[in-house]
Amino acid sequence: MANYTRKSTSNEPHLLIKQISPFRRITSPIDESQLTPLDPRCHTAQFFDPLTEEDLRKLAQFMQDYPHIRLRVHSHSTIDNLAFLHHFPFIKHLSLELWNLNSFDGIQQLPNNLKTLLIGNTFANADGLIEFAPLLSGD
Questions:
Q1: 1, 50, 59, 135: which has the fewest Cβ within 10 Å?
Q2: Are 57 and 84 in contact (CB under 8 A)?
Q3: Per the confidence metrics, is the pTM higher than 0.90?
Q4: What Å distances lie between residue 48 and 19, 28, 45, 65, 75, CA to CA?
Q5: Residue 131 confidence (pLDDT) above 70
Q6: Integer Cα distance of 37 and 136 in angstroms
Q7: What's the rounded Cα separation, in Å, for the pair 76 and 8?
Q8: Where are the domains positioned within the chain?
Q9: Strands 70-75 vs 44-47: parallel, antiparallel or unpaired
């Protein structure tokens, strides 16, 4: 969503300048305003709370048109698994910041051509990633 900021100098009238966010925040229920075409400067679609299956399907369908966009999933308390990843077998860039993540089960649903995987602090044991080392190393 665009924000507008007043800018002025001492000799000019106030101008409204459109500010474009590099992030598209997705919330449930997803409505049409969240699925409007992305500005070329936008690089991330993100959600903080669980999305319904229907919303995950909508988001996945939308993101297929933007292969360069990173999916960022950030939650301190409400998302504890990676089951949602089956909706995104095409994703190239993924950032997970899930404090209450129980395990990395589901990460095997990521594509072999994944380019970026960022994993923030989590309670899940990182040993669960060992079996996915070929995926994560690009081998």
A1: 1
A2: no
A3: no
A4: 22, 10, 11, 22, 5
A5: no
A6: 30
A7: 40
A8: 22-137
A9: parallel
Amino acid at 136: L
- Can you list the alpha helix ranges (DSSP code H) found in 1-139? 53-63, 133-137
Question: In sequence order, what are the residues at sequence separation of 6 or more whose Cβ sits closer than 8 angstroms to the Cβ of residue 126?
Answer: 104, 119
**Residue 126 class from Cβ within 10 Å (0-12 exposed, 13-18 middle, 19+ buried)?**
exposed
Distance CA 101, CA 32 (A): 30
For residue 41, give the nearest of 95, 2, 6, 77 by alpha carbon: 2
Look-up of token digits 């000799």: 11
Q: Is residue 12 very low, low, confident or very high in pLDDT (cuts 50, 70, 90)?
A: low
